[in-house]
Every structure is written in structure tokens, then in C-alpha cells.
Amino acid sequence: MAIRAILALALWELVGRLALVAGGALPAPSAIAIRFWADRGDYPMHVWATMQGAGIGFLIGNLVAVLAGVLFAVSPVAARLARGVNIAIFALPAIAIAPILTLMTTGMTPRVILAALGCYFVTMTATVTGITQADARMRDVIRAYGGGRLASLRLVELRSAVPQILGALRIAAPAAVLGSILAEFGGGGRFGLGAYLIGSLGRADPARLWGIGLAATVLAGVGYAVFAMIAARVTASTVAVTVAATPPAGDAPRPLWQRAALAAGSVLLPFAVWWGLIAASGAPAMIAKTPMALVDYLMLPNKAGERILDALAQTLPITAVGIALGLGFAFALALGSVLRPGIVRAFMPVALVTQTMPLVALTPLLVLIFGRGPSVILWITVSVTFFPAFVTMAQGLQMVARSALDVPRAYGASPWTVLRLVSIPASAPYVFAALRLAVPRALLGVMTAEWLATGTGLGNLLNQSRGYLDYGMIWTVAVLSVLLSVFFYQVVVWIERRVLARLGMTTAA
Amino acid sequence: MPVGLSLSGVSRHFDGRGGRVAALSGVSLEVAPGAFTALIGPSGCGKSTLLRLAVGLDLPDAGRVSVGGLSPAEAARKGLTGIAFQDAALLPWRSVEDNIALPFDVLRRPHDAARIAELIALVGLTGFEKALPGELSGGMRQRVAIARALVNDPEMLFLDEPFGALDQILRRQMNVELQRIWMESRTTTLLVTHGIDEAIFLADRVVVMAARPGRIARVIDIPFPRPRRAELFGTPEFAALEAEIAGALDGH
Ligand SMILES: Nc1ncnc2c1ncn2[C@@H]1O[C@H](COP(=O)(O)OP(=O)(O)O)[C@@H](O)[C@H]1O
Ligand SMILES: [Mg+2]
User: Fold this and answer.
1) Residue among A90, A128, A126 nearest A231 (CA)
2) How many A/B residue pairs have CB atoms within 8 Å?
3) Number of domains in chain A
4) CB distance from A307 to chain B under 8 Å?
5) Which site in A126, A255, A412, B62 is 20 to 30 Å from B82, CA atoms measured?
6) CA quadruple A362, A368, A369, A374: dihedral positive or negative?
7) How far is the CA of B12 from the centre of ligand 1 (A)?
8) B110 and B203 share one domain
């Protein structure tokens, strides 16, 4: 391990010294270190500022997420009603609303909000699944002694959700850092790694850009590592030894009119929240657009619709390709890690670095290396979809009960047979979970690359509109990208329901 | 005071992928306060379903179930019942002693440390108080489940194949222990088992069930005086009853 790391570093040094990659776009580690030393006076305040935004957002986002998760697990009605809001928060590409937040709020607020939003969904869903997938046999014990839902929550469900929640916090930590940095790009505040990076962009100094990118990565990585360590400790000793034969009870069937009312409520609620927030902010109507104002904007004879369609035709195909590549790679590697657990150990640090490298910091570097063509979009999209997908699938496969794996093994099954009979079928819920995660991330990756690198598609439209102070278009693109994400997410959910029902499985977080 | 169990005309179906399963169909059974009843039958004849109805985990489609004149759920809330599931169903993050103490937590009673220690000794797990379920063998986990079922001094005790995972020797020992516990407490006990010898050794009455639909095929009284000793297993009277129950299980 250590030897391999040293070898990799030596190779990087060589490549950097000889300027082998795109004429010096990848500087040698020593050059980065020297630049870092020269800049050492600048780092503490920038790191501290980003830590503040990310940390406060992390606390608020996760606290709200766990509370909301408990509420949704206990009340299917609340979960159904909030579904639209939840998915909108999840799907919202942070880059799209950063300009809006900077227009509407001041100081640390945009950072805290984006960091909190980055944490919310993953922790909320983990809480819900952790609670609802708690072992039915254990809940039965509580009920057999007359314990109600609260006793079951207190004694069984919350505790059995802990590994899931810790798993989510691991992912939330880098997401919070990323959220804060994205908000820093949107403007507001002199300090923060994102602000520092933006300030250094014009100087064409790859060593400094890499230094800042690495600093942000380390910050995110430390957050990840802390929760990974806690999660490993908590999970190892307390995995149930046997398989629960009974699936968790489903939601009671509801009459059609109730389902229709809940569905309508869940679609309307995000718009109501949007409206309410704007009313509460008291921002001028020129900047803060309500849903109605956007409809008016699109009616104006300014060819807005045409420009949007052109942008979509550029953005959507490449997003789909990126998702397919990222997920396929993650699936292969996660299955490989069942055969060779060493893969997780060896690969996780690499995956961690790619992922926690905040996208926007990565983009200029990748542009230096890959140019401004579509390949840079693919690199970014694959790297943002791959890691969460890999974590989700590898973790899911690790949770397959020991006894389920032992049965075929006891009959002398080869590792491949175990994979085919147990691991691959058991991974189905996690593949879909990964796909649900991947859709919005891919869109975020594509839009970011379009904004900063290729000058195409929705990302570019957003950036241009920012320049023209075309508030109507800023809002339209933001809302449209959320709607698109939500739409594709729903398509995945629809397929997932059908496939998993056929396999007799339930969805995974 | 031990309480009785009463089932009258109880039916329960499940709609599964293989069509409708009549897990229980028109089952009526009276268990007198303080009696020891064994329930025996082929796998899938509804034994566990009957137990789940009796502790209020499930509701019958038709018929009535009551424990000491109360609905099963009420009886459970009052702490009248104790149950050991077929699958030990331990909480994997709780130590042996904390798992045994679980009913106290649910019933909001203070932990009775002396009682817990006594039960741990009784099921032969002294020294494993702090162990987690993942560190125990199947038989040891099952014994934790039995101790847990006894910890609240229930008036009505349900045991679902509690000794299924134990070896023959330990099983005999546990049979003798269970009889001793029962004679001391006179707790009404319903034991689900697939061991004919175990049923005869322990019970006042053996209820033989048949499958598809799940129903009671025969009820056989066991006349042996108590306390019954291990030597009983070898007697001709014992063998005759074994043959009779085996016949009933085969549908005679
Ligand atoms: N929750 C359930 N859903 C569907 N079928 C069930 C359920 N519980 C039990 N059954 C079915 O009812 C029948 C009786 O089951 P059970 O009471 O567990 O049998 P036993 O304990 O006697 O082996 C079986 O055919 C089983 O498949
Ligand atoms: Mg059973």
C-alpha cells in the first residue's frame, strides 16, 4: 500500500517535471508543495471560512434530515406529501441555484444553505430506510410485549438505523464542503477556498489551483474519514447474524381519491414553498421570480423557449452517456470487491479523492488537461456519478447477511457462483438506489462543465444570463433543471418499483 | 395468577404468490390456567401463526382469541405474556443481559438485575453476560431468547420451538429445567415443538395439528404424574404415547 503510494507519487513527479500532460497542466507534487508553502499565509483564513459554511450547513442539514426522516418513517402521509419537496431538494443542481441564493441572501447564508441542502436528502433517506427496514423480527419482540410505535422506535428502529445514518453522514461531509465552495463561486465573501480559487483562476498558475483543490479535498476527506471510522466500528459487531424471512410490512392501501389528493399535494407543495420563501424574503419582484412571474417571462417575445430547447439538446444526451459509464464502472468494481475485499480497501482512497475534489475546482484543471471538448464533460460526469454509486453498491453488498453467503459456500460454490446466486440479485435494490443518486449528480456535473468549460447547453445558458442580468432566464434554467432532474428521477423510481416487485425485494436508500 | 388462553373458531389466511394459504381454519382451543400444553404438527401447519395471534402480533380473519379474558394486545401491554420466538430475534447491538432485560424496557419496569443474573445462570450462559448475539452459537442465542421470555415472570408463556437449535443432551437438560420452572411458577405454557418425546415429557395435553388447511387434528392427554424424571423416556407407556402421536401426525 505505502509502496504503491510512493510509486504513484514518484510517477506523478516525473510526469509533472517533464510537463508530459497538456504542456504542464499537471504540475509535479513538489511544485504544488512549493507553491503551497509560499501561499501558506493565505490558507488558514480560507480553510476556516469554508469550514464554517460547510460545518454549520452540515449540522443544520443533517439535524433537519434526521428529524424529517423519523417523521416520514412514522407517518406515510407526511412522507407522501413531502415527496415533491424532498425530490426537488435532492435533484436541485447546486450550481443552478447558487446565483439565485447570492442574489437573495448575504454573508455566510448562501454557503450554509447549499451545504445543508447537500446533506439533507442523503441523510433523510438513510434515516427513513434505516427505520423502515429494521428487522421485522425485532419489532415483533417489542410488539409482543405490548410496545407501541414509540417503543419500537426507541428500542429497535432508531438504533438499527444508526449504521445507515452514519453511512449517509460520510457522504454528507464532502457534500457540505462542495456546497459551501459552490456558493462561494456564486459570489459573496472574500474568504473561503472557493473564493480563493476564483481569485486565482486568472493567474494561470496550475500549481496554486492544484494546491487549493487538494486543500478542499483534504478538508472533505477528513470529514468523510471521521464518519467512516465511526460507521465501521458501529456496524461490524452488530449485523444481524441470520436473515429475516418476512419482508417489512408495506403501506396500507389507500382509496384512490386519497392517493390522488396526496399526489397533487406533493406536486404543489414545492411550488408553495418556493412562493412562500419569496414572499418571506421581501426581495424585489424584478429579482425574485414567483412561479407566475416565470410563466409571464416565457410568454415574452424573446425567443427564450428556443434557446432553452437548443441548450437541452446539447445537455441531455451527454448526461445519459455519463451516467451509463459511471454506473457500469461502479457496478463492476463493487461486484469485484465481493470476490476480492482488497478492492474496496485499495480503491476507496482513490474514489474518495476524485469525489471530494470539489467539482468546480476540478473543472479548470480538467480543462487544462482535456481541452474544452465534450470529453471534459464526460470525465466530470463519470467521476461524480461513479463514487456515490460505488459506495452505495459496495456497502449494500457488504450488508448481505453472512448466512446468505454461507449457504452456497457450504455447498462448495465457487466465488462466481456465490456472486451469481446471492450478490448480484441482492444488489438489485442498490443498483437502482445508485441510479437515483446518479441522475441529479450527472446533471450537476454536466452543467458545471458547460458553465466553466465548453460554453454549451444549460450550464452555459445560466452563466450567460448571469452576465446579462437576465433574472427571468436565471430562474427559468434553475427551475427547469430541477424539473428535469425530478422527471428522470421519477422514471427511475417507476422502473425500480416494477423490477423490485418482480424480484420480491424492497427499495434501498 | 396464571391465566388461560382461549381460541374459538379462529381462521387466518395469507394471500401469497402461490395463491391463498389457509394458515389456520376454524381452530378452537382452550388452555386452562396453569396448564402445560404442547402444540405439535408438520412444518407449515400454522403453529407460529397461532402463537402470533395469541400475543397480538396478528389479527384473525374470523374468530376470537383471548388471554385471561383480555384481548392478546391488552394482555401483552399488562406484561402477562412472555414469548420466545422460533428465531431467537435478539437485538444484535445489545449484550446478552441487555437482550434479556428488553421486556422491562418495553413494559417500562425497572431492570431486575438479580432476576436477570438468575436466568442467565439457569440457561447456562454465566460468563457471557456482556457478549453480543453475533458472538454466540445458535443454541446459545436460543437460550437467551428463553431467558428473555421468562424475565417478566409471565402468567402465560409462549415458546415457539425453543429447543430446535439445541443438541439432544442439552435439550433433555432444558426439558427438565423447563418442567422445574413451570412447576415452581405454574405459568400457563404453550409450547410449540416438533419433538414428540419433548411434547409428551413436558405437557399435560398434546395438541396435534394438520396442515392445508391448518387445523387441530387430535388432542391427547398425557397422564404421567409430576415431577417427571428422565427415566420416563425409556418406559413402554411413553413409547405407546409416542406411537399414538406419531400416528395422529400421519393422519390416523
Ligand atoms: N406473513 C405471512 N405471509 C404469507 N404467508 C404466511 C405468513 N405467515 C405464515 N404464512 C403461511 O402460513 C402457513 C403457516 O405458517 P406457520 O404458522 O409459520 O407454520 P409453522 O410454524 O407451523 O411451521 C405457511 O404456509 C406459511 O407459508
Ligand atoms: Mg413455525
Assistant:
1) A126
2) 76
3) 1
4) no
5) B62
6) positive
7) 10
8) no
Q: B126 φ, ψ to 5°?
A: -55, 135
Residue ranges making up the domain that contains B145: 87-149
Q: Is the pTM of this model over 0.80?
A: no
Query: Residue B82's Cα: distance from chain center in Å?
Result: 9
Does any domain span residue B3?
yes
The best mutation among B20, B48, B59 to test binding of ligand 1, ranked by most ligand atoms within 8 Å of the C-beta, falls on B48
The 8-class DSSP code of residue B193 comes to: E
**Is the confidence at residue A243, as pLDDT, over 60?**
no
* ipTM exceeds 0.85: no
Cell 507553491, located at residue:
A35
In terms of DSSP bridges, do strands B62-67 and B5-16 run parallel, antiparallel, or are they unpaired? antiparallel
Question: Which ligand lies nearest to the CA atom of residue B46 in the structure?
Answer: 1
User: Do residues B237 and B161 both lie within one domain?
Assistant: yes
Residue B68 forms part of a structural domain: yes
Same domain, yes or no, for B13 and B72? yes
CB contact under 8 A, A238 and B93: yes
Q: Is A202 among the domain residues?
A: yes
Distance CA A507, CA B15 (A): 22
Look up the domain containing A477 and give its range. 42-248+256-282+306-502
Same domain, B95 and B56: no
**In the predicted model, what is the mean pLDDT of residues A397-408?**
71
Instruction: Report how far apart, in Å, the C-alpha atoms of B30 and of each of B56, B65, B220 are.
Output: 17, 10, 13
Same domain, B61 and B159: yes
Using pLDDT thresholds of 50, 70 and 90, give the confidence band for residue B172: confident
Q: Are residues B160 and B235 in the same domain?
A: yes
Please check the confidence at residue A358 and state whether its pLDDT lies above 70: no
- Counting DSSP H helices and E strands in chain A, the numbers are 22, 0
At A269-286, the pLDDT tens digits run 999 999 998 888 888 888
Please report, as a single letter, which amino acid is at residue A183: A
Q: What is the CATH number of the domain that holds A66?
A: 1.10.3720.10
Per-residue confidence (pLDDT) for residue A338, from 0 to 100: 74
Half-sphere CA count of A187, side-chain side, radius 13 A: 11
Longest Cα–Cα distance in chain B: 51
- Interface residues of B toward A, Cβ cutoff 8 Å, are 17, 52, 55-57, 73-79, 81, 83, 85, 87, 89-93, 102-103, 105-107, 132-134, 141, 148, 152
Distance CA A90, CA A433 (A): 13
As a whole number of Å, the CA-based R_g of chain B is 18
Instruction: Order across the sheet with B62-67: list the strands.
Output: B19-31, B5-16, B62-67
Based on the fold, state whether residues B97 and B135 are members of the same structural domain.
yes
CB contact under 8 A, B57 and A142: no
Q: Are residues B162 and B59 in the same domain?
A: yes
Asked, for residue B171, whether it belongs to a domain, the answer is: no
